[in-house]
Amino acid sequence: MRWARLLGGLAILAVVVWWVGPQPFVTAVRSAGPSALVAALALTAVTTVCCAWRWRVLARGLGVEVSLREAVSAYYRSQFLNATLPGGVLGDAHRALRHGALPVVADRGSGQAVQVAAVGALLLTGPAPWAAALLTAGMVAALVRWPQVVVTSLVASAGHVVVFLVAARAAGTDASLAELVPLALLVLLAASIPLNVAGWGPREGMAAWGFAAAGLGAAQGATVAVLYGVLALVATLPGAVLLARGAVRA
């Protein structure tokens, strides 16, 4: 299964390169200016604290105590490992080894469930309002039962969307927010598909397809997705510092 995930991610990247060429990758790296990097670091700090808070709440409900400080540190380490090691989930495995598997599974599952529900409610408003109504009702019910989990998940998802918008503007995309936000939601949803190489693959494929379908160009979509990947990687560098400090102490 591990090899299938890696090969799937590599295959998608190969198709994207065949489709748009290597130039979007070069352009993305060159577009990663200081302002975009600082914005990504700040936004990711907010999303990390939200995710750590959600994990802490779920862990406590399962009888596992994790302080907020340790939760934030562990989440940063996890994000860095996910962004640099094949598979995109080894950071979560590292977190599970130190703090228990069940709270980590509950954390990842609840975060993705809220993200899927929010994306569905927003994207289905026009063509399928009844489906959007059902999803919204489900979100409201979840909010009543698990308010901290839902709110922190929504804030974290919004933070990732804003980082994507920062990447789009830095890459020279002049489309309106009404066009970019649905694309960002689709791309970030595709990024959660486990067929990737440290997060790369489905994200770039969905961005190329989505931007092409919206009339913005497949190459531009690939550029934005790659730049988002670069910004996301840089934003997880505090996790590398924490890992290095832990290794020195050990």
Rg calc: 18 Å
Describe the sheet with the most strands.
none
Strand content: under 5%
Which word captures the global form?
Answer: globular
Q: What is the mean predicted local confidence, pLDDT?
A: 85
The counted number of beta strands is 0
Q: Would you list the SSEs in sequence order as H and E?
A: HHHHHHHHHHHH
N- to C-terminal distance: 33 Å
Share of helix among residues?
Answer: over 70%
Total separate domains: 1
Low-confidence stretches: none
The number of helices is 12
Structural class determined from secondary elements: mainly alpha
InterPro entries: L-PG_synthase/AglD
Keywords: Cell membrane, Membrane, Transmembrane, Transmembrane helix
Membrane topology: Multi-pass membrane protein
Pfam families: LPG_synthase_TM
Task: Give a verbal description of the structure.
This protein has about 250 residues and is mostly helical. It has one domain (about 1-5, about 25-250). Helices cover about 80% and strands about 0% of the residues. The protein contains 12 helices and no strands. Helix 5 packs across helix 6. The longest helix has 28 residues, at about 35-60. The chain is globular. The two termini are about 35 Å apart. The model has no long low-confidence stretch (mean pLDDT about 85). Pfam families: LPG_synthase_TM. InterPro entries: L-PG_synthase/AglD.
Task: Spell out the key features of this protein.
250 residues, 12 helices
Strand and helix map with partners:
Elements: H1 2-20, H2 23-30, H3 34-61, H4 68-84, H5 90-99, H6 101-123, H7 129-145, H8 147-170, H9 177-191, H10 202-213, H11 218-235, H12 237-249
Helix pairs in contact: 1-10, 2-11, 3-4, 3-6, 3-8, 3-11, 4-5, 4-12, 5-6, 6-7, 6-8, 6-9, 7-8, 8-9, 8-11, 9-10, 10-11
Keywords: Cell membrane, Membrane, Transmembrane, Transmembrane helix
Transmembrane segments: 32-53, 116-143, 149-168, 180-201, 221-244
Subcellular location: Cell membrane
